[in-house]
Design goal:
Layout lengths: L1 E10 L2 E11 L4 E5 L6 H8 L7 E6 L2 E2 L5 H7 L1 E3 L12 H9 L7 H5 L3 H20 L15 H13 L5 E5 L7 H17 L3 E5 L3 H7 L2 E6 L2 E6 L1 H5 L2 H6 L10
Parallel strand pairs: 3-8, 3-9, 6-7, 7-8
Antiparallel strand pairs: 1-2, 1-4, 4-5, 9-10
Helix pairs in contact: 3-5, 3-6
Bound molecules: adenosine-5'-triphosphate.
Protein name: ABC transporter related
Organism: Pseudothermotoga lettingae (strain ATCC BAA-301 / DSM 14385 / NBRC 107922 / TMO) (Thermotoga lettingae)
Keywords: ATP-binding, Nucleotide-binding, Transport
């Protein structure tokens, strides 16, 4: 589903990602961990076309996407969420998802201005799809609330619903548990596993909360200073001396 082949990204003299290769099979729930500044978000930005790597190639479903425009990569089936939740806070929960669905809208501006039949029909199906998504993520009852009024855990689910509205096959989650209390975190863990199964997704997540990573990821890649220092199952990673030295043993992960 996703392959990074010897990818390198530099910022001036800093090598943020150094010769990184990652291969994720369809349907997997994979984790990307490592200390602050290890290069995790940079990897997400390379996959989603925000950055072009100096070296290496990125493949999505065997098709090369290196350096493609972000909207093109989204339309191919890659969606993401951000470390800091990005929503339209003054809009309702439903409208937040509707806007994300519009990403795929085929109707022209003219048909919208003149409210032509094709446009109304498309609008109706977008509303129906948005409501179904809200039901799937458990926010249906809150559809008419302002996004800003939702508790943090619900805002995160709304952001994920917006990502799902682009009908992705690969979902990238950047620190989904950041800022959550233990109850919200536990709920989020079940939620991520459920949407993976329900929407037939492949998921790659960045997370500092080891309870989440070790609890739901099937395979983990560990980065340190832009380099992959380990990959394996949660058990293998927990017992890897180099990972313990660079990350787990330092307490640097105990954020959030
Ligand atoms: N746009 C940029 N310009 C210059 N340097 C950058 C840029 N983006 C990231 N970096 C640097 O690249 C390195 C990797 O950053 P990145 O954000 O990918 O790390 P991270 O593993 O996601 O960290 P965190 O866990 O803190 O989010 C850091 O040293 C960072 O300062």
């Amino acid at each position: 589903m996703l392959k990074l082949d010897h990818v390198t990204k530099k910022f001036g003299g800093l090598i943020a990602v150094n010769d990184v290769s990652i291969n994720i099979e369809k349907g997997r729930l994979a984790g990307l961990i490592g200390p602050n500044g290890a290069g995790k978000t940079t990897i997400f930005n390379i996959i989603t076309g925000v950055y072009r790597p100096e070296n290496g190639r990125v493949y999505f479903k065997d098709r090369e996407i290196t350096g493609e425009k972000p909207h093109r990569i989204t339309s191919l089936g890659v969606a993401r969420t951000f470390q800091n939740i990005k929503l339209f806070y003054r809009m309702t929960v439903l409208d937040n998802v509707r806007v994300a669905c519009h990403f795929r809208l085929k109707a022209s501006i003219l048909s919208a201005v003149f409210d032509l039949p094709g446009y109304s029909k498309q609008e109706k199906s977008i509303t129906e799809e948005s409501l179904k998504l809200l039901e799937a993520v458990g926010l249906y009852e809150l559809r008419n609330e302002r996004a800003s009024s939702l508790p943090y855990g619900h805002q995160r689910k709304l952001e994920i619903a917006r990502a799902l509205a682009t009908r992705p096959e690969l979902l990238l989650l950047d620190e989904p548990a950041a800022g959550m209390n233990p109850e919200e975190t536990l709920d989020l863990m079940k939620f991520i596993v459920r949407i993976r199964n329900e929407f037939d997704l492949t998921i790659l997540l960045i997370e500092h909360d080891m309870k989440v990573v070790m609890g739901i990821c099937e395979e983990i890649t560990v980065l340190d200073h832009g380099n992959i220092i380990a990959r394996g199952t949660p058990l293998e990673i927990q017992n890897n001396p180099e990972v313990i030295k660079a990350y787990l043993g330092s307490g640097a992960y105990a954020r959030g």
